[in-house]
């Protein structure tokens, strides 16, 4: 079953045609990655899916329901949660408080408590720092918190935007291992990632976006072996 379907999506920033007919899908239980150069339209694609940036035309469907014109908070209630580039912590709030902010669409107190327990089980380091001010966490810890906060509303699909950006190599490995654990736990993921090598290693399928349009689409394994992908995105001559 397709959790997310994007059909012929066009997005503009003023007179700039940012997305030029993007079409993609994510099946339940998959990791699908969207790779491309800086400025290719990766983040704009996620922001348009989430309703943060309005679509000019085309359609976004979640489990078959058209969400293209819905507000971002309505899209969240339907199970689409985005973990933004740069983490975007509530820097003056504690780890606990940040997690509770991630559950703002959840009205049942018991579900919120269960969500907190799941978050701290998956991210023991955050449990150790549950009363710490989020702005004082390390970059890796902040990324863990951003992902845990995104899981608090039990999303049907998690949109991850550049989760490894700005992290030391050892932390990059840790973040990707966490994404794999989320996937193994049943979370469906659409991953935007500059580190194409790592993204293609963990994804089921992949799309390559160039100047606002899908240039290639295949299994991640096939794209890893594609000479053009190797040359342009994997640094293999």
- Estimated radius of gyration: 17 Å
Give me the strand/helix succession: EEEHEEHEHHHHEHEHEEHH
Strand order of the largest sheet: 6-7-8-3-9-10
Overall pLDDT metric: 94
Helicity, in percent? Answer: 25-40%
Low-confidence stretches: none
Please count the helical segments: 10
CATH class of the largest domain: Alpha Beta
Secondary structural class: alpha/beta
CATH fold call of the largest domain: Rossmann fold
CATH evolutionary superfamily of the largest domain = P-loop containing nucleotide triphosphate hydrolases
Shape category: globular
Oligomer: single chain
Number of E-state strands? 10
Distance between the termini: 38 Å
Would you kindly provide a written description of the structure presented here, covering whatever features stand out?
The chain is of the alpha/beta class and 237 residues long. It has two domains: 1-79 and 155-163 and 172-237, Rossmann fold (3-Layer(aba) Sandwich); 88-154, no CATH class. 37% of the residues lie in helices and 27% in strands. It is built from ten helices and ten strands. The chain has helices at residues 42-49, 72-77, 95-102, 109-122, 124-128, 139-151, 169-184, 196-202, 220-224, 227-232; strands at residues 2-13, 16-27, 31-35, 57-62, 65-66, 80-83, 157-161, 188-192, 205-210, 213-219. A six-stranded mixed beta sheet has the order 6-7-8-3-9-10, sandwiched between helices. It has a four-stranded antiparallel beta sheet with strand order 2-1-4-5, covered by helices on one side. The longest helix is centred in the last third of the chain and has 16 residues, at 169-184. It is globular and about 45 Å long. The mean pLDDT is 94.
């Amino acid at each position: 079953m397709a959790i997310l379907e994007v059909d012929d999506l066009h997005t503009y920033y003023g007179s700039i045609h940012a997305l030029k007919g993007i079409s993609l899908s994510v099946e339940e239980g998959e990791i699908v990655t969207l790779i491309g150069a800086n400025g290719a339209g990766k983040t704009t694609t996620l922001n348009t899916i989430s309703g943060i940036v309005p679509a000019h035309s085309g359609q976004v469907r979640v489990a078959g329901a058209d969400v293209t014109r819905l507000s971002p908070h309505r899209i969240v209630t339907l199970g689409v949660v985005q973990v933004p580039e740069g983490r975007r912590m509530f820097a003056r709030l504690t780890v606990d408080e940040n997690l509770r902010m991630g559950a703002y669409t959840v009205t049942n107190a018991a579900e919120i408590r269960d969500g907190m327990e799941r978050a701290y089980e998956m991210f023991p380091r955050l449990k150790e720092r549950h009363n710490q001010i989020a702005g004082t966490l390390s970059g890796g810890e902040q990324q863990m918190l951003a992902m845990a906060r995104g899981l608090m509303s039990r999303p049907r699909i998690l949109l991850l935007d550049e989760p490894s950006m700005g992290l030391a190599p050892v932390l990059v490995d840790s973040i990707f291992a966490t994404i794999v654990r989320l996937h193994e736990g049943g979370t469906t993921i659409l991953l935007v990632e500059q580190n194409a090598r790592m993204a293609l290693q963990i994804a089921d399928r992949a799309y390559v976006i160039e100047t606002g349009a899908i240039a290639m689409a295949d299994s991640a394994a096939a794209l890893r072996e594609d000479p053009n992908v190797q040359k342009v995105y994997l640094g293999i001559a």
